[in-house]
Amino acid sequence: MAAFQEREVFLNVYNLGQHNRWLSGLGLGAYHSAVEISGREYTFSNDGVLVTTGRTGEEAALREKISLGTFQGSMNQINEVVVRLREDFAPGSYDVIRQNCNHFSDAFSMALLGKGIPGWINRMAGLLHWVPGSGQQAQEASEEEAADVKVSAKRRELTDEQRAILAKIGKKKGGS
């Protein structure tokens, strides 16, 4: 039987460069974010949804850790949400303006808690969305950031066997 318990949900926000010192005064900045639950960090990159036991932004400075709320449920329920989100946040679908780590953190928070992440975290991407030609320049910058912000070698992703088990659980719940 799955262990239901209260699990604190945090948003870890990392600075992606020194420029945030002066951009933050304007309410802007470039940030990497990840959702942390029970010592695991969940984030999104061009490799897809990543689950690690360390900090995904270990190459970047942790700006702050924000409590988003408390999730009441099991790790199996959390894993089911991750499996669903992997459909929308598939490997190769990363776009620094339209589908980045902050978009994933927001969707994950909405799915677990019914509320998103603070708007200032992804404000820069929202503004750049409306600037003609910014997509290509931003994508090139995101590729450089991806090289700078390396994911921990301790990364743990679901195995095919674990995915199959989760799929069976989902079918049982849907058929009950």
TrEMBL record:
SMART domains: DUF862. It comes from the Eukaryota. InterPro entries: PPPDE_dom (IPR008580), PPPDE_sf (IPR042266). Residues 7-130 form the PPPDE domain. Keywords: Hydrolase, Protease. GO terms for biological process: protein deubiquitination; proteolysis. The keyword Oxidoreductase does not apply. One of its GO terms (molecular function) is deubiquitinase activity. Belongs to the DeSI family. This is PPPDE domain-containing protein. It comes from Pinguiococcus pyrenoidosus.
